[in-house]
Amino acid sequence: MDFSDLVHCISEVNTELTKQATKAVNRSLTLRNWLIGYYIREFEQHGSDRALYGESLLDLIAARLSDISGFSARTLRLYRQFYLVYPNIWQTLSAESVCPEKWQSLFAKFNPAHLLQPCGVEIPIHNMKAGRDDILMNLSFSHFTLLMPIDDPLKRRFYEVECVRGNWSVRELKRQIESLYFERSALSQDKKALSEHVHAGAQADSPNLVIRDPYVFEFLGLKSQEVMYESDLEEALLRKLESFLLELGYGFCFEARQKRIMIGDEYFFVDLVFYHRVLKCHVLIELKTGGFSHEALGQLNTYLNYFKAHLMTEGDNPPVGLLLCTEKNHALVQYACAGIDNQVFVSKYQVGLPGPEEIREFVEGVIRNE
Q1: Which residue in 13, 132, 210, 253 has its CB near the most CB atoms, within 10 A?
Q2: Edge-to-edge strands of the sheet including 281-288?
Q3: Rounded to whole angstroms, how far apart are CA atoms 21 and 143?
Q4: Number of other residues whose CB lies within 10 A of the CB of residue 35
Q5: Nearest Cα residue to 161 out of 152, 173, 148
Q6: For the segment 257-275, what is each residue's pLDDT rounded down to a tens digit?
Q7: Which residues contact 81 (CB under 8 A, 6 or more apart)?
Q8: Which residues touch 65 (CB under 8 Å, ≥6 apart)?
Q9: SS3 per-residue string spanning 10-36
Q10: Torsion angle of alpha carbons 41, 42, 45, 50, nearest 10°?
Q11: What is the pTM of this model?
């Protein structure tokens, strides 16, 4: 073994065991969520005191488990839906060889006859079958959240098989569903050619993408900012921007980095959130390591509307958004003042926040130094 062999061996060991670790985390998370859904459903049907809780059951569970991350009423509802759509995961659980005694008592009262059986759908396009265990081992819970809303068993099975076959990332699965891949395949005369074209341009999953999955780092107890940075430049800008604004003395009170919000069944992250004690409003800052785009402005406006609808309290003014975009050695600063009509407040805004040139100089300075 020479030095190059040594480096190659270390790299190979790291890559392979990282893959195994991420698969193990994914599988544990998926099984946990399924079991939670199972427990909730069992209680709803057979709980001795279920009538006392009724429709408020999930809210009460979430309140009781408020000290544990990831147990909001919305996520509990998602776990229950997961069990209802994929009831046959119990077969994998009951066949566990690692610690079967842990599942024996759980499934002792399980009557498989009452469960939905596998749809038995064959995917004729590639003559390929993906077993339940293959799906469990290769798809993350975030994949399942995209598959669960698909009512047609054949369509859902199609995406399961194609996703496993192509090792698709969550983003890629979402893109294929939205681009109607199933429908296009049904209408296509040359299904194999279409499949080859789709898979050739598909984004494959990777350990890096898996560990950045919101459900995964929530499950592992990681903080958002520990896994959400997209580049060294972005990390440096956010870290220094936080200190920069606090040092200006304009009245910024730091609240969060990579603030996680849930809109519908999707997680989103606001880069920096401050509360301005003079303006009496939240200030949301989004950083894009690239040029200005309408998509970026639309994303920030979505966050502003969410804060306005859900996080404003009595006496608060509407939130203010600041979008920072970098491209080479210049910065474009765009303010979005959603819903701010009051002229008195606008005048306060003008003196309460740093001006565009001040922000521009800061961003350009960080880019030069980095």
Answers
A1: 210
A2: 252-263, 266-276, 281-288, 320-327, 330-336
A3: 18
A4: 18
A5: 173
A6: 888 888 877 788 888 888 9
A7: 37, 148
A8: 71
A9: HHHHHHHHHHHHHHHHHHHHHHHHHHH
A10: -90
A11: 0.64
